[in-house]
Amino acid sequence: MTSVATQTDECGDAAHRLYAAELRRWRQERGVTQERLAALTHYSAALVGMVEKLQRNPTREFTSRCDDVLRTGGALARLLPLLAAESYPSWFRPFVEMEAEATAIQEFEVQVIAGLLQTEDYARAVLNSWPPKSAEEIERRLAARLDRQRILDRADPPLLSFVLDESVLRRPMGPASMMAAQLTHLIETAARPNIQLQILTFEQARDAPTDGAFVVLELPQRERVLYVEGVGNGRLVPDEEIVDRFARAFSAAQCQALSMADSIAFIEMVRRERYGCE
Questions:
Q1: Fewer CB within 10 Å, N or C, the chain?
Q2: Residue 60: which of 36, 84, 44, 32 has the closest Cα?
Q3: 206 with 156, same domain?
Q4: Where does residue 154 rank: exposed (0-12), middle (13-18), buried (19+ CB within 10 A)?
Q5: Does residue 11 register a pLDDT over 70?
Q6: 148 in the same domain as 80
Q7: Please, what is the Cα angle at 186 between 115 and 57, to 5 degrees?
Q8: Residue 220, preceding bond cis, omega within 30 degrees?
Q9: CA 106 to CA 162: how far, in whole Å?
Q10: Within this chain, do residues 18 and 79 fall inside the same structural domain, yes or no?
């Protein structure tokens, strides 16, 4: 009997082979060498070759440039969702599917900035932490994480509510310039009308929930689901009583946290004082 892991690996290989074959086909149809495509897209010829040999995962930006240069009509971009879906761990895929459909998302984070709010550099640094991963695996998961952020630009985006512990802002996942850029991105993203972002400071945290990070999703039929993550895995909890307890915990965290305006001022203060950026 074939295991789920084996099926996933086979599907992932198939999707990457399809992308590589399509890139090669379009390139050859247009009479463009790898070196010429690299020059026109401002990438290295080595990178183009690695993508075609399944040694490097294509990013959204790489794909967009190739589609433009090769005049594919978006053929390569249409393959990205297949690649992204297969890049998630099997235990995480059900959550991603529900997240994409959610009408409201409440997320409480205590260690790192929420994935939907991460910059590319910050996300890469997070993925490069324990456990160790190959460069290829990091790039594959990075592309998938950035793909999740497409829900922010949906025609009908969900109502997103975030409460971030102060430690999330102060924990340096990389150089000061990267962290400053990430905090700037938080400030800019929080300006969207469907996003509520609040910071739970150290002084306020003593009266806040201590259950760790969690996400409450509200789906189109008003069904609610809880997602909690542990070391190396995560699980969805549909039990309404448990979901309600965590939803109330999130409301308590919102009450204890700074207001949205004060949260933005606090982020600006941390960016300036800790990371040296005005």
A1: N
A2: 84
A3: yes
A4: exposed
A5: no
A6: no
A7: 40
A8: no
A9: 6
A10: yes
**Residue type present at position 142:** L
70: Cβ contacts below 8 Å, ≥ 6 apart: 26, 27, 29, 30, 32, 37, 76
Tell me: the pLDDT tens digits for 266-275?
A: 999 999 999 9
* Residue 65 CB-half CA count within 13 A: 14
Q: Check residue 2 and give its pLDDT.
A: 26
Helix (H) or strand (E) holding 195: strand 195-200
Burial environment of residue 36 by CB neighbours within 10 A (0 to 12, 13 to 18, 19 or more)? middle
Calculate the alpha carbon distances from 78 to 18, 53, 92, 99 in Å. 12, 20, 22, 20
Per-residue DSSP letter, 117: G
Name the residue range of residue 268's domain. 89-275
Closest CA to 99 of 195, 225, 213, 217: 217
Question: Looking at this protein, which amino acid is placed at residue 266?
Answer: F
User: How many whole angstroms separate alpha carbon 194 and alpha carbon 121?
Assistant: 24
Please say which residue of 54, 84, 114 terminates a domain: 84
Assigned token pair, 110? 């205590």
* 175's tokens: 């150089």
The answer to whether residues 112 and 215 belong to one domain is yes
Q: Is 143 within 8 Å of 179 (Cβ atoms)?
A: no
Which pLDDT score, from 0 to 100, does residue 210 have?
Answer: 66
Q: Please tell me the distance from the alpha carbon of residue 29 to that of residue 95, in angstroms, as a whole number.
A: 39
